[in-house]
Amino acid sequence: MTAIRKHRRNPNGGEPERSVGGAGADKRVPLKKLALTILLLGLVVLAWLGTLSQYGEDYIDRVFTQALTTFAVARALNGVISVAQGTKLAVEPAGVGANFALGEVLDPINDLIERFSWVMLASTTALGLQKLLLEMAGWWGIRIFLLGSALLFMACLWWPARIYWQFSPWVKQLLLMALLLNFAVPTVAFLSGQVFEDFIREKQQVSMRALERESQEFKRIEESLPSEEDRIKEQTWQEKLSQLMGGMRKSLDFEAEIQRLKVKSEEIAEHVIALIVVFVLQTIILPLLLIWLLLRAIRIIQ
């Protein structure tokens, strides 16, 4: 005989009662409950072990150190450029003295470095906030809240259907809140770490090494330029004659150094822009995007 599939209206209202029409239907419901119970117990154990939180803390500490190092390099480079901007150069092509400041060459790159310093400060602040939230997620009180919510939900899950449908909505909301508090920030940190390792890490390291190298070369070129203070106030006629003979050669060398300085400024600007993109994506845009996706997923589940 085929099993009867009709539903009877519950006289007390609420969900209709399913008629006992086959052994398969009776087995599917307990299996779902059992799977959900095992999943919740696994999440509770994961929260208490703190494996996900520890991975997130290691990732944020690593990125925080990188951000501080990059910020220090940016501030040091900004200091070198600021000093160079206030330096007047003395050139004597063909014996005719000429003075001008490096500010004309360095103004654009100096403005970019200052903005880069502000970006790194914002990135470091965002990482500090993420670290604080991660430490709060690992607090024992939040873990106990998750344990209690999970036990309450499992109790409602295995109670009779009438009791389950009566208490399920607010118990489910309580459980989702506990899961969000325990796993939202660690999950975002974990996913951010995976994206960083797969797509960002190599670009960041290349740009960082290049920026440090170009900064040292930039400083060396700036120190090699003749400053106005290096000029000799009183010279003999032999010294003046010698300076006159070498004037044109020095002026050509000076122009070559200035050109190299411009090229280095452009190379530094390229690496600075690359690091700005990397750190803004890594510390601000990516975490916010992952949090938004997580909240959207929770709404769909609800």
TrEMBL record:
What are the Basic residues biased-composition ranges? Answer: 1-10
Does Plastid show up as a keyword for this record?
Answer: no
Region of interest: Disordered: 1-24
Which parts pass through the membrane? 34-55, 140-161, 173-196, 272-295
Q: Does the keyword Ribosomal protein apply?
A: no
**Superkingdom of the organism of origin:** Bacteria
Q: Which UniProt keywords apply?
A: Membrane, Transmembrane, Transmembrane helix
What protein is this chain from?
Transmembrane protein
Source organism (scientific name): Nitrosococcus oceani (strain ATCC 19707 / BCRC 17464 / JCM 30415 / NCIMB 11848 / C-107)
Its lineage reads: Bacteria, Pseudomonadati, Pseudomonadota, Gammaproteobacteria, Chromatiales
